[in-house]
Design a protein that fits this description.
The chain is an alpha/beta fold. It has a six-stranded mixed sheet, with helices on both faces.
């Protein structure tokens, strides 16, 4: 699996296109002049076996970019390719089979069990009035076991911890058979133990051939659980580096507007330290 983000720009004004405006070129010209771009000519690639962490201050464009990739938002310009196919040419079902998006928080009106929630990931493969097959149920149990939460299969999702709910969302995504996982701040509402749990399990999946993009406000987690760090600043990619390349660097200082340096602890772990 290979994802290519090619020269993507975006503005929220683009999604509030005025009534009666028929010339897209005129609209784009007006937007560029008013300097309302949230993303500015963003490009990068990610392939199977990579776990890429997005860092940046609030408003840097991280969540917007992650929502553009599965077409929840439409870019002003540029394109998103999955295995050299533009997502714009894909049907909703084909996109669901290629890209799994896991939000930072999800709540349903009904107390579905964990197993029922995971089986919802098969929706792209079955008709509206069909039920998941026995093979689907077997696969759901295999995924829950793989993520270490098989014992939760019969529990209502509103009776498990935040970290366990995030793992259920990941399990549901895996039921889509999508090889690209997009996690929007997956650790935001979790205690430290559950933050580690979610990222450890995700990292294990990446080692098995998945690709993962996730955003985080915690540089230490990005350094510990990624193969590459993409830092965003004012809608642009400021730098793309492997965690080990950041050792001894103050590159994060320009992102967070504070004096920071990446150091390695005696235990061998990279951490971000204020100066």
């Amino acid at each position: 699996m290979k994802l290519e983000v090619q020269n993507v720009s975006y503005t929220y004004e683009h999604d509030r296109k005025p009534m009666g405006l028929h010339n897209p070129h005129d609209f784009q010209t007006r937007i560029y002049k008013t300097d309302t771009l949230v993303l500015k000519d963003v490009s990068f690639t990610i392939s199977s076996g990579e776990m890429v962490a997005f860092l940046g201050k609030n408003g840097a464009g991280k969540t917007t970019l992650l929502r553009i990739i599965p077409s929840f938002l439409t870019p002003l310009s540029g394109d998103i390719l999955v295995d050299e196919v533009s997502v714009r040419s894909m049907s909703l079902h084909d996109k669901a089979k290629a890209i799994a998006y896991i939000p930072q928080f999800s709540q349903t009106a009904f107390a579905y069990t964990v197993k029922e929630s995971v089986l919802m990931g098969r929706s792209p493969y079955i008709s509206m009035f069909s039920r998941p097959s026995m093979q689907d149920e077997k696969r759901a149990f295999e995924i829950l076991d793989e993520l270490g939460i098989l014992d939760l299969a019969g529990r209502p999702t509103n009776e498990i911890s935040g970290g366990e709910r995030q793992l259920v969302l990941i399990a549901r995504a895996l039921m889509q058979d999508a090889k690209l996982l997009i996690l929007d701040e997956p650790t935001s509402f979790l205690d430290y133990s559950n933050q580690l749990l979610v990222l450890e399990k995700t990292y294990e999946l990446v080692k098995k051939g998945y690709a993962c993009l996730y955003s985080t406000h915690n540089p230490d987690l990005a350094l510990a659980y990624s193969t590459r760090v993409l830092a965003m600043d004012k809608g642009k990619i400021a730098f793309s580096m492997k965690p080990e390349e950041l050792e001894g660097s103050d590159a994060l200082s320009s992102i967070y507007k504070r004096s920071l340096i990446v150091e390695r602890t005696q235990a061998g772990r990279l951490i971000c330290v204020p100066q």
